[in-house]
Amino acid sequence: MSSDFYRFAVSSHFSSFPKSFSLRKKVPWWYQILDPRSKFVAKWNRTFLYVCIVALFLDPLYFYFPITGDKACMQTDIVLRVFVTFLRTVADLFFLFHMVLKFRTAYISPTSRVYGRKELVTDPRDIASRYLKSDFIIDLLATLPPPRFQNHVAVVMQIAT
């Protein structure tokens, strides 16, 4: 009975509208603030941990690119150099994306922990200032690739001499 009423009461001009109508705008992903307790953040942190472990074992491989002189007994391995540099660049991109996510992830207010309410701070300025004051320098230094630069500078110095 109600379906007959709906068919006669609603005009066919409104058939193009969606069934659930919302006045809320869809926010683009780059403006969204992430909940630190969400599944996405948990999966990202786990993935980032695995990338950090791989990067930890990649950095010592840069010291296995010995620079040889005229007729020395050691040679450089170009294939290993390219492979390790590629993997480390991918890891650096993960580090950079992690830094971007930290600017967009809310945090629990320190004053609300006392009372057990655990209120999230979602203001982008507060999140950015807290991150810049706490972990930003460490994350930036971890993203910079000193072994690669050291290796490339040594190759350039050898070619120049």
TrEMBL record:
The keyword tRNA processing does not apply. GO terms for cellular component: membrane. Residues 44-145 form the Ion transport domain. It is found in: Membrane. InterPro entries: Ion_trans_dom. One of its GO terms (molecular function) is monoatomic ion channel activity. Coiled coil: none annotated. Keywords: Ion channel, Ion transport, Membrane, Transmembrane, Transmembrane helix, Transport. The chain crosses the membrane at residues 47-66, 78-101. It is a multi-pass membrane protein. Its main location: membrane. It holds the Pfam family Ion_trans. This is Ion transport domain-containing protein. It comes from Sphenostylis stenocarpa.
